[in-house]
Amino acid sequence: MSDKVKYLPQAAIPDADVPVWRTEDAERWRKAAVPAVFGPVFGAWALVLLVFGAVVLLGWSDPQAPDRGTSWEGYPAAVLLVGLPLWYRMIPAGTVLATPVLVGYTLFELAGLPESDGPGRVGSWLVVALCGAAFTGALLRLRARRGQCALALAAAGDGRRELPDALPRRHHRRGLAMILTGGGLCLAAAALLWWALARDLGAAPEHPYDATGQQVLALLLLVPATALLGRGIGARRAARRLHAGPQPALRVGIRADSLTYSWLYADVRDRSGQPLIAFRDHVENTADHVRTLLGGSEERLRTEHHDVNWFSEPIEAVLYGAPFEGAEVVLEHAAFYGNTRITTSVLAVPLHPRRRHGLKPWRAAGRSATLKEREGRAAHRAKAAESGSGGSGCGTSSSGCGSSSCGSSCGGGCGGGD
Question: Residue 39's CB: how many other CB atoms inside 10 A?
């Protein structure tokens, strides 16, 4: 990881100059994010607890038994309620559409509940409250996305640049795996429900059919299926949006915090900048050695364009597209290919709303990490050789028992010093 070039060579910059994302602009962008309490992770887990409480209360209430067979009336609402935390985490736009429907159905059912059904009434109002919280949080997240997009576009200015010619393989099929998986699970759930409904309607009145098992199994399929389907469609649209035309571009920093995540920074020359937003540094999200920028002797290249360890400090890259939660962007940075060439690497990555990074403040090394490492190894070898030669006088002597040098320098002689 020490062959990443710290600053982009001039040959890596597109024809027109790309503005640097200034730290003060990036800080305004960071503060425009949704509050942590409405964040996708914290908000989803809070909804899990609320939904669990609502389900317990509603299950405790007196159910309205159907005339025969299985009750299907509240099944769509049950799917929406149980799936709400995952929808909030993965598809906030779907949450904005689903919560009013769920609230409307819940209020309609609440009007028909008797006053004596305390658990049912409390559970219904809890559903209304958690829907209000989910709707508010999802709306704030969508608003934060638009605000951060506008701030990034303002920082990039009026200039627009074409994407690099070579893009990673995964970018071209972004979201397809989730769409296919979610669609397959939806078809399986639909087939299960169709079979259960047919058995229920075809049962004789004196022998009603209980399809509760099929309903529960279908629900367990529909909750992840709809979330995956929505997330896959959103990811594919975000990737395709980059190909709608030339994109805004900024010079940013990227730094790795582990083997999985990397982070965007603002100006790599300003140490006061904070990590902004994360992405997964997966091998299929990267296209290496896209174009050659410079060639020459290794010492000259590593002196004029020094490499760094990007776990220790950010490296400079050109960002194409507007960064915000859920967006896909393209990043192009420089790296050594062998020892005599500098080439570009291109990353196409979705941005994740991760907040914890564990990155410590960094300090610019100012010189090649590879050359520094080689010098350290050479110094270590020299020290080891000097240490070995200094203590080898007696150990290497095979001149016999009467060696005066052995006797005088080590004091042992052949008799062992008894």
Answer: 22
Write the CA distances from 263 to 86, 140, 266, 290, 395, integer angstroms.
25, 23, 10, 22, 55
Q: How far apart are CA 45 and CA 133, in angstroms?
A: 13
3 contact partners, CB below 8 Å, separation of at least 6: 307, 335, 336, 370
Question: For the chain, which ranges sit under pLDDT 50?
Answer: 1, 392-418
pLDDT at 94: 94
SS3 20: strand
Tens-place pLDDT, residues 30-44: 999 999 999 999 999
Asked if residue 318 lies in contact with residue 12, where contact means CB atoms within 8 angstroms, the answer is yes
Could you tell me the sign of the dihedral formed by the alpha carbons of 119, 122, 127, 130, in that order?
Answer: negative
Q: Which contacts (CB < 8 Å, 24+ apart) does range 268-272 have?
A: 268/6, 268/7, 268/313, 268/314, 268/315, 268/316, 270/22, 270/23, 271/361, 271/362, 271/363, 271/364, 272/23
Kind plus residue range of the DSSP H or E element containing 234: helix 212-241
The structure tokens 């982070």 sit at: 263
Distance CA 383, CA 403 (A): 29
Distance CA 280, CA 68 (A): 52
Q: In degrees rounded to 5, what are phi and psi of residue 250?
A: -140, 150
pLDDT of residue 384: 83
Residue among 364, 351, 354 at smallest CA distance from 268: 364
Neighbouring CB atoms inside 10 A of 58's CB total: 21
Q: What is the pLDDT of residue 47?
A: 96
Among the listed residues 323, 335, 314, 334, the one whose alpha carbon sits nearest the alpha carbon of residue 268:
314
Six-digit token string for 40: 């996708």
Strand 286-287 and strand 341-350: pairing? antiparallel
Which one, of 24, 248, 279, 255, lies nearest residue 152 by Cα? 248
Q: State the pLDDT at residue 398.
A: 42
Residue partners of 55: CB distance under 8 A and separation at least 6: 81, 82, 123
Q: What is the rounded CA–CA span in Å between residue 379 and residue 385?
A: 10
Q: With contact defined as beta carbons under 8 Å apart, do 53 and 126 qualify?
A: yes
Q: Give the integer Cα–Cα distance in Å for 14 and 294.
A: 15
Q: What is the model's pLDDT at position 1?
A: 44
Q: Which helix (H) or strand (E) holds 200?
A: helix 176-202
